[in-house]
Records
---
Amino acid sequence: MKTTVILATISACACVLAATTELRKDFRIRDPFVLADDGTYYLYESKPWSGGNGVTVRTSADLEHWSERQPVMVVPEGVPATAVWAPEVHKHEGAYYLFATLTEKKGSAPVKAMSPNAKEKNLTPRGTWIFKAASPLGPFKPVKTGPLPPKEWMTLDGTLYVEDGQPYMVFCHEWCQVDNGRMCYAPLAKDFASFTSPPQTLFSARDAVPGAGHVTDGPFFYRSPRNGALYMIWSNFVKGHGYCVLLRKSSTGKLAGPWAKDEILYAKNGGHGMLFRTFDGKLLLTLHQPNSKTERMKLFEIEDTGRTLRLVRGAFDAPPSDTESR
């Protein structure tokens, strides 16, 4: 009888688990961002194709089985958001900061073309906001009402990078407004509610590999423990490959660069990646692939060779072959 009860209890628990988890391969997500914190993996996501309600999170212990989504940020009342993009959560000095790009209704901010090649019909108010919480589960509240980059700029994909104790936002100035998309950075005030000096440009989109397009997407930084080098990954469209993850290295080891020309880290119609370490020490790249209406979260093991970063065949998704990447 006791054995029967135990088996029934295990079976019931398994059913509950099955009902409340999803496999990584089964749910659609763009721009996946993983925070590995205190034994739990947190996956932040938005649904930009279905409106601008906010940001949700899933949790996992193994990166394959994920909990149901729960809200961590709701767009403040009165903000005319039509989409929320590319949420990231960073832990800094004991607090958690959510960076998310909000697209707003046309006419809610003075966004004008900044290049003769930019088309007014493509311009929509868009910029990265910062929210703060005491827990990775939120609730996240805005540190200020509005984006931190200039509101008259069309910007997206802000990320956090800390150098010598100084936090910076690195973000993309949209190709829609400037034609040749720019990668920009600015130092953040201690409360993350403003920039302490005007944004500077690191490089432009076409200043990449041969065949690069005009898009700048998804910057993320990695400091190598092997050689101290500073790497940036970001995404662009490259002729012959589609949407890619590109890899740059700072010649000085500093954010201000200069940044050496790119290598292609991932080239199989997927991108907007970030890097994180598993609790057993593996360095992983996550991104969405394909770059279409069937996007899935992919995971690839990365080797830090001491000279560069490269995809390796490991326990997660297999890197694409040369023929698959075209």
---
Amino acid sequence: MPQRGGAPVTVPGAIAGFDLMASRFGTMGFDRLLQPAIDLAFRGHPVGDRVAFDWPEHAPMLAGDPGGRQHLLVDGKAPEAGAVMRYPALGETLKRIAEGGPSTFYSGAIAEEIVSTVSQAGGFLTLDDLAKAKADLVTPIEADYRGLTVAELPPNGQGVVALIILKLLERFDLGALDPCGAQRLHLEIEAARLAYGLRDRELADPDSMHCRAEALYDATFIDRLAERIDPARRAADLDLPPLPGSDTIYLAIADGEGRLVSLIHSIYGSFGSGLVTEKSGIVLQNRGGCFSLEEGHPNVIQPGKRPMHTIIPAMALKDGVPVMAFGVMGGAYQPCGHAHVISNMVDFGMDPQAALDAPRAFWDADGRTALETSLSDACVWGLETRGHAPVRVSAPLGGGQMIWRDPETGMLTGGSDPRKDGCAAGF
């Protein structure tokens, strides 16, 4: 699938999703809920360090789009860290949605501009598509990992991939290993490669899948899958496609009444499709980039269908009671990141901040294994001897946030990944 332009733009579901969440679980309407975002759009915000690090790479793409050039560059260049960016056109759009509700976004002038922008860039979106937009309440899928129940979003999200990885890792005594050592990372990488292979063969809109998500982490199936992991050697027979990347934000929230919220939001690629509406200032996502063009594949692009989706907010439960809201950003890395931080806590006793801070490794389709720079030379050598091709990377792998509620005391502990512009705050 094309990753930029009009073709990968699917119906934006965020407004419908936020409306459903607020009406079902909230106490305020859009007129009040959107006010902080409206104020921020008009008043502006300083550009954070991590965002400023990433932005220049995509300035040429934005310069080639009239809306991108107008709303997201300063004198044709990416803003520097600390520069104040304002989005008055987006502020006006949010004001209209606050006053008129979600229908203001999915019909009328805003919708017409979205469709026109996508159409001119070779996309397929229609006014009827936007008018039919709806959000669904879904039941999470769950799996136990050594006494902790991990709850993930079902397909078309890739949460099942995290559960497959965890159930594979449960077959090994990770707690006896060095958490930053080559053997632990080798097992995690091999489990992830198997799980991602299943993702790219099976995962799609649930109405199009060949099997139920639960079948992919069924105990008997996992036992057979685990037999393919050689504790001493990287498997050479896994044919895996390139992994998509994305740019995502995540929030974990807990309140004084016992609620936990795990919320993730993304326009997928950096600046999404690279298209920005000129009048309304909306950056259009490129979620359709995760469709397949392979005829007969469950994730093949079709009308009225949702693509395989990378973003996966998650929770964990102890004895049926929610004790943690967490998420790990980073596009394709997310399921591996979920398994990594859960294992850090369960197998190695790390607290939320330590579990997020711990160094990471991930593989890509050309056979390399990306290692964060904090991993030791001994770890690099150990992965090489197991058949991996480790490469140190300057950019961090993913980023995450987490809130843990102690099931005994109710005490809250927050963690925020230093790889991103974020923080843990209580008030």
---
Amino acid sequence: MKQKLDELTKDYENVWSKYSEKEMQNVFDFGEKYRKFMSFCKTERECVIELTKIAQANGYVNIEDIIKEGKKVSAGDKIFAINRGKNLFLFHMGKEPMENGLRILGAHIDSPRLDLKQNPLYEDSDFAMFDTHYYGGIKKYQWVALPLAIHGVVVKQDGTIENIVIGEEEGDPVIGISDLLIHLSRDQMDKKANEVIEGENLNICIGSIPIQQEEEKEKVKKNILRLLNEKYEICEEDFVSAELEVVPAGKARDYGLDRSMIMAYGHDDRVCAYTSFEAMMRIKKTDKTCVVALVDKEEIGSVGATGAHSKFFENVVAEVMHAAGEYTDLNLRRTLTNSKMLSSDVSAGFDPNYPSVMEKRNAAYFGKGIVFNKYTGARGKSGCNDANPEYIAELRKIMNKHNVAWQTAELGKVDQGGGGTIAYILANYGMDVIDCGVPVHNMHAPWEIVSKADIYETMKGYYAFLLEA
């Protein structure tokens, strides 16, 4: 179809200028809900617990109960499945057979951080210290001289679980990693950025008061163990079966004098997990079965029993098909192959402080909406999922129909670096997949930045996809 001359170009406008007063309020209201979520959900387990509560309040039923009771499911039923407390899968059953394909939103809920080692506690020079192992891709120098908190669980020998959160309440102490004073840092300042702080030096100071017993050795360490035992009834050996994550302390905050952005730990990738979840909660009726898959371990290669490479998702789909009376091995294969997915993950937002790493015509910008990345990968597209143009054309149509602000980008200049997502893993089933999500500043730093407008438009885009794809 021929178009007018002024319709031939695509102008990716800043969406803030398009909002009515009512729409602007919707953006800020949704941003505030997300900010509160990010203030308290700083680990995979915390995300799963919080989102499961909301899902159950919206009528979702645990797949385990369906299996135990031998129930059948049909159109309109809502189901959730949890894997080891760190994956959450949601299904909203559609009218059509599952064999016709699923609409899937897939995001990850792990973020770069510091993990305590299995034997973390030691004493040095009258300081009690925690030894850590960093998780995911971080700039190690960003984690020093920063207030830190501990989130996680300690599983005791008898199987009881102690939930630990230290450093978030108003009266809580915080912990941290010391930095070298500028007066004595001549040698340090001559090092490359990736050598300024070495991984084995990310040791956290947690105390300095010795226990008041003269015959004891490592008195400061013993005093910390005494405090932990009094509050949580744990001993040193319990650290072996603990999962304790060290994260930036403090709540997510409005960012910018105009409050147009949010600063938080873990936007990558909880901003896409949250918007995917919220889009799912808005679905009332659907022809095709809609799915939200929130996975773990993306930051270290999607490996293990809770990563996207695990067979757990495939197994849950099989269980749901069985409950719907549709399961055969062939039907399962057809279901996955006929599915369509948005790999809901963040993109690098253009930063005017660092323009040299971006190619401006193919960069993601704050305030221009949800970002579609046809491919990610590194350098010659290595390791990426490269989405088919037929699928992209379909998504363009859906976004435009629902008045969703969208843009397209790649992850920086061709030879600059790169990154990956879970997209290629689900594409291995033969389904159509593309990466899309929210542009981010400070990605993988302790505090990341996103635009409230992009959060809102991304939720709208995910909702439109679930309705139409």
